[in-house]
Amino acid sequence: MMAGSILFAIADAMAKLVTQGYPLPQVIWLRCFFGITLIATAILIKGKQGDFKTSRPKIHFLRSFAGLIMTVCILVGLKYIPLGEVTALVFATPIIVAVYSITVLKEPMSKGMLTAILLGFIGVLIVVRPTPSHFHIAHLVMLGFALASAFLSISARALVKTESALTLNFYIYPATIILAAYPAWQNWVTPDLKSLALLFGVAFFATLALFSITKAVHCASPAKVTPFDYSRIIWTISIGYFFFDEFPDKVTWLGIAIIILSGIYIISKGRTIRTGSTVK
């Protein structure tokens, strides 16, 4: 889980670099093209061509559009706001999953869970805080990432018994590859070798991170290992400080701390998170 956290931080930093020099649609398309290529290669190497097939095309169709929203939102966030704030808003996902579980799935809600959800949203408001000197529309866009990511976590519950982790992740990409192709090619800037390596690195490290986290939750219950994923905030803030001259102010630190503590409580107590997050 710690390895996965570090790898995700590296992938985010690489993505932030390439979004500064290339059109966003192109970065989105290449991220997904490399991602689906890596997963397809893994399926072929394992000799499990059956992972390309699915008996649940309708829900994969919806997950693919959620993948489009998630990819667009995370790259917009990385382009315009500091790494640490992006990661803090990523960690709002368990809070949204908990709300869905309580309101839609009618799972029981304790006072502790309600308190954690309310505090989590307060933490999000503190990080986003709509003041002229701090707020950027990308903060709101990142909430779109959290919503899409929450849907992927929840929908995984309906698929985990019939679909492999590779199948789940393979079908996240098609909608983005198809719909982002035209705007990507309209504004195409031919990348040099270094930039191409960075673009491939984003997909490679993110895919390897996902594999590491999946292995972690197969070795122990998600409630025990997922809290270690919150170490990602340390790595992203460190990278942001040394490479992008970014460092959260005291108010942002407060919001980050509230989101993390709320998320850890929800993950450790919530049944939906324990079953849904293993294959996201």
Description:
This protein has 280 residues and is mostly helical. It has one domain (2-279). The chain is built from 15 helices and no strands. It has helices at 2-21, 24-46, 57-80, 83-90, 93-103, 111-128, 137-159, 165-170, 174-179, 181-186, 193-219, 222-225, 232-244, 250-269, 271-276. The two termini are 14 Å apart. The model is unreliable at 272-280 (pLDDT under 50).
The helix content, as a percent range, equals over 70%
Q: Give average pLDDT, whole number.
A: 89
Distance between the termini: 14 Å
**Total beta strands:** 0
**Rg over CA atoms:** 18 Å
Tally of helical runs: 15
Coarse morphology: globular
Report the major sheet.
none
Strand content: under 5%
Number of domains: 1
Order of secondary-structure elements: HHHHHHHHHHHHHHH
The structure class reads mainly alpha
Which residues form runs of ≥5 with pLDDT under 50? 272-280
Q: Quaternary arrangement of the chains shown?
A: single chain
Report a brief summary of the structure:
The protein is mostly helical. The protein has 15 helices and no strands.
Protein traits:
77% helix, 280 residues, mainly alpha
Outline the secondary-structure elements.
Layout lengths: L1 H20 L2 H23 L10 H24 L2 H8 L2 H11 L7 H18 L8 H23 L5 H6 L3 H6 L1 H6 L6 H27 L2 H4 L6 H13 L5 H20 L1 H6 L4
Helix pairs in contact: 1-3, 1-11, 1-13, 2-3, 2-11, 3-7, 4-7, 4-13, 5-6, 5-7, 5-14, 6-14
